[in-house]
Write a structure and sequence with these properties.
It contains 14 helices and 5 strands. By secondary structure, it is mainly alpha-helical. It folds into 2 domains: 205 residues, Rossmann fold (3-Layer(aba) Sandwich); 91 residues, Tyrosyl-Transfer RNA Synthetase, CATH 1.10.240.10. Strand 4, helix 9 and strand 5 form a beta-alpha-beta unit. The protein is elongated, with a radius of gyration of 22 Å. The protein starts with a strand and ends in a 5-residue tail after the last helix. Bound molecules: adenosine-5'-diphosphate and tryptophan.
Length: 331
């Protein structure tokens, strides 16, 4: 059985982009692999959340993971900071990581551009901690989106470097895993090409949105004044509505509105009503489980505790072996 590791930063509620781009793959992978899925709370500290926000985001994401279909009986679900061994592995790896290569990372350069007054060391060493997350469980596969490919390449570099320096093929070289043609980018409701809470909260439909909220958001989605001649290319905003429909509606429904568009007979009000209904049908079961789980504090704590126990067991084994390889022996 392959080992799979992936993490998500707790920066707010999960939206449909997170679901179709990441969570859905986790749910599939838990069936046939030994999976470790964690909430990357250490990583999220690079953006300085308040303690209250951090705490509630971690709890919300844990609840949303489970409500959407991650099964704690099948996958190990844990909070990164419950397994502090990852810090030791990160420290050990960092001794053979060069500042120059960290400064060249695209996501780091992007952060420097975006938040020039908060270029903290955690941002620079982000890829080292991420490599430690992955190597801690000696993963074979890491389900991530395209934006994380460079980080994963670095993980392989660090693993290979360790193996070479210590003349020991200890770490496997993990590969990025996505479901090929199923790799999707869910667009936003605001006409932008990516649903993203960090870019625009209003572009998002959240798994924790109530049906009325979804309906309101979809009815307000950006569209245009409609095609005036057959074969007219779609504007980005209208293309987005079709993409969203493709994600949640049946192929027949999609085809119906496609035909309407091509015949210049489309009424976006009708299309949005249908899209809202299909999104609600999709999100509502998850939304209801979220509401139930929010009341089950004991259960949530138990999942986190048991996940942490299993993750620590795997981590302790790796740390013990790595220390031996490096030559750290206690007296
Ligand atoms: P956001 O852009 O809302 O801040 P994150 O960066 O926290 O989202 O994304 C977490 C995960 O969800 C990543 O694996 C990312 O690839 C995936 N993801 C985010 N938005 C989308 C989207 N619109 N379509 C597909 N996948 C997405
Ligand atoms: N950097 C990832 C993101 O922003 C989150 C993450 C942290 C991660 N550690 C990881 C993903 C380990 C996969 C494996 O989405």
């Amino acid at each position: 059985m392959d080992r799979v590791v992936s993490g998500i930063r707790p920066t707010g509620f999960l939206h449909l982009g997170n679901y179709f781009g990441a969570l859905r793959n986790f749910i599939k992978m838990q069936e046939e692999n030994e999976c470790f899925f964690f909430i990357a709370d250490y990583h999220s500290l690079t953006t300085h959340p308040t303690p209250l926000d951090l705490q509630s985001n971690v709890r919300n994401i844990l609840i949303e993971y489970i409500a959407a279909g991650l099964d704690p009986e099948k996958a190990t679900i844990y909070v990164q900071s419950d397994v502090p061994q990852v810090c030791e592995l990160s420290l050990l790896l960092s001794m053979n990581v060069y500042i120059g290569e960290l400064q060249r990372v695209a996501s780091f350069k992007e952060k420097v551009r975006r938040q020039p007054d908060n270029v903290n060391a955690g941002l620079l060493t982000y890829p080292v901690l991420m490599a430690a997350d992955i190597l801690l469980h000696r993963a074979d596969k890491v389900p991530v989106g395209k934006d994380q490919e460079q980080h994963l390449e670095m993980t392989r570099d660090f693993a290979q470097r360790f193996n070479r320096i210590y003349k020991n093929e200890y770490f496997k070289l993990p590969v990025a895993y996505n479901f090929g043609s199923e790799l999707v980018k869910i667009p936003g409701l605001d006409g932008s090409t990516k649903m993203s809470k960090s870019d625009n909260e209003n572009s998002c439909i959240y798994l924790a949105d109530a049906p009325e909220v979804i309906r309101k958001k979809v009815m307000k989605a950006v569209s245009d004044s409609g095609p005036t001649e057959p074969g007219q290319p779609k504007t980005q905003a209208v293309e987005n509505l079709f993409q969203l429909m493709k994600a949640v509606s049946t192929p027949d429904t999609l085809q119906y509105f496609e035909d309407q568009y091509q015949n210049c007979a489309i009424r976006y009000g009708d299309m949005k009503k249908q899209l809202a209904a299909d999104m609600i049908a999709f999100v509502q079961p998850v939304y209801e489980r979220i509401l139930e789980l929010r009341e089950k504090d004991d259960y949530i704590r138990k999942v986190a505790r048991e996940g942490a126990d299993r993750a620590r067991e795997s981590a302790a084994k790796t740390i013990k072996e790595v220390r031996e390889i490096i030559g750290i022996k206690s007296f």
